[in-house]
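Q: What would this chain look like folded?
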Amino acid sequence: MLQHETLASWMTDIDDKRKAWQVPGCAMAAIQGTDVIFCEGFGHLQKEAVNRVSPKTLFPIASTTKPFTALGLAMLAEDGLLDFDTPIQTYWPGFRLYDAVATNRTTVRDLLCHRTGLPRHDLVWYHTPLSRAELMERLRYLEPVRDFRAAYHYQNLMFTAAGCVIEQVSGRTWEQFTKERILKPLGMESTYFTLADAKKVGALAWPYMSQGKQVVEVPYLNNEAIGPAGSMISTIEDMTKWLLYQLNPEAITHAHLLSERRHDELRTSQLFSGSQPAWYPEIPITNAALGWFVQIYRGERVIYHAGNLQGFSSLVSILPERQCAIVVLSQVDNSRLPAVLTYEAVDRLLGIDQIDWHARMTEEAEKEESAKLSKSSRAECKQGWVLQSSCMGTYRHPGYGEVSIYAADDNYYMSFHDLRFLLSPIEANRFLASYEETYQLAIPITFLTDHTGTAISLSAKMEPAIGAKEIIFTRV
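A: My prediction, written as structure tokens:
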């Protein structure tokens, strides 16, 4: 255990890093064996507010929800109710993907390690008014970019489908199953699945995003439709219980959850998911496991999952051979603060020379921002092109739903879900649809006309993955 003076210095360093990254508030915990070294809140729930972040402050944990979904499926496998390598249609006859081979052969293992060939297609669910079941019906209309099982493509909709497998097999909603089989046994009484429930019972951190060099408040995002992929809301205190279980799954109080063999399976690499930049030689490779990722950091195996959601970032990391774990819950979406604090915590816990991850990632962030500004300056929109009245109206795609083109306030707009994109002309019949209220989205769209010049459809680059086709919306 660290000395009191050392721990106090560490807490000061964490808070200094939080301020440097312009994060109003965060929470962090570190565990070694069965000992909680610290479990603390830093900063405030809201900029310039009085209420401070505490171990009981609620944060949306985003994609760090995924390991809970994977654990639930492993528990059902241990119950003998499903097999990770049996086609999903065995348990869910209505499951359909765009590709017939993938439809017939996709297994739980494929969903959990992101190898169906389907790119993210995140705009399908972002701000969607649809239910989870309705989203799943639309999977069959979303095209893959790679052959089935040919490559890794991170996929929130496929993880939502994994949660639906739990529902099909257990006869309970994913939320009910997760609460009864995982949260209750672990004593995670302050973890929720909806914003409405979280707001009723506890202090909830406010969402923020970086826009240029400023951090601005943004609305909370309701992502309950993809709950199994990222809707859970928790406290650092509850996440400490989750990590104590991960480090000690065979403890008496946890013995009924899952066998060691099944835990090992969840943490076993399935396929290569990417390498870090060359200037991070300490992290040579990252692989996708089942609901987790596996990374080698300075020769140590790290089991981890990150989370990013509109307004929030999180990172959960486990070093099983060293019996230590770290979790960071933070405001500000896509913030590097959780990674900075985690890697520096690992160096401290292992007693090795510390790398200045703050300086490294600050430099990386500055380069990234410069690249964005350069790209923005190269995006040319031309004046003079006018959107023809024949282009106004509603267009539909069976997977993405409807977009509407309309004029207002001397401008042209595209509406999608409840998002409003400003249309700027590029050339005849081609426009750039821009949305800047939260995420910075810039989608080229092209109107396709018939022989009379009337628009009959529009194509839009809704999915940015390399190889992804433009989505064709047909006029209603």
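The chain is about 30% helix and 25% strand.
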